[in-house]
Design a protein that fits this description.
By secondary structure, the chain is an all-alpha fold. The protein is built from nine helices and two strands, in the order ααααααααββα. Keywords: Membrane, Transmembrane, Transmembrane helix.
């Protein structure tokens, strides 16, 4: 198995869930992540939603997205990143999974609320609002990890 740097593993996972696993030699896991990504992507119309959103057609993107399928994507995406990151570490740091887990939760919440939320009367849509929700998810997960580390040292 090829050992990767943690940042390299995360960046390959951002490009496509499963790439980091394939590159590091975990072929079965990597191919499974890639197949699941393609299945969810196709069933949810995710690529078309991304394209429409980047073209400023967030209302149309919201109408063509299959939310039932897209709801699976944040957890798959963040788990594949966590798995790649964890595999790249020499020693897994305590609570290092929390930013990934909270990121997945917050992106999912952002996706659920995306049909309803406007920021300054602008409809953000099912692509950009979940991306915005990722930021507090990562921060909260990191802060909770720091608090738990501090508490475990006090005990």
């Amino acid at each position: 198995m090829k050992k990767m740097e943690p940042l390299e593993a995360i960046l390959w996972s951002i490009a496509l869930p499963g790439f980091a696993q394939v590159l590091s030699g975990s072929l079965v896991k990597g191919i499974l992540f890639i197949l699941l990504e393609f299945l969810i992507n196709v069933k949810s119309n995710f690529n078309e939603g991304i394209m429409l959103s980047f073209l400023g057609k967030t209302d149309t993107a919201s109408k063509i997205i299959n939310y039932q399928w897209l709801m699976f994507y944040p957890c798959l995406y963040m788990y594949a990143m966590w798995d790649a990151y964890k595999s790249a570490l020499e020693k897994v740091k305590k609570y290092s999974y929390l930013p990934f887990a909270f990121g997945a939760y917050f992106v999912t919440i952002g996706l659920m609320y995306s049909p309803l939320i406007k920021i300054h009367n602008i409809f953000i849509g099912p692509i950009f609002l979940p991306m915005i929700f990722l930021i507090p998810g990562l921060i909260i997960g990191h802060v909770i990890g720091l608090i738990l580390k501090k508490k475990s040292k006090e005990i």
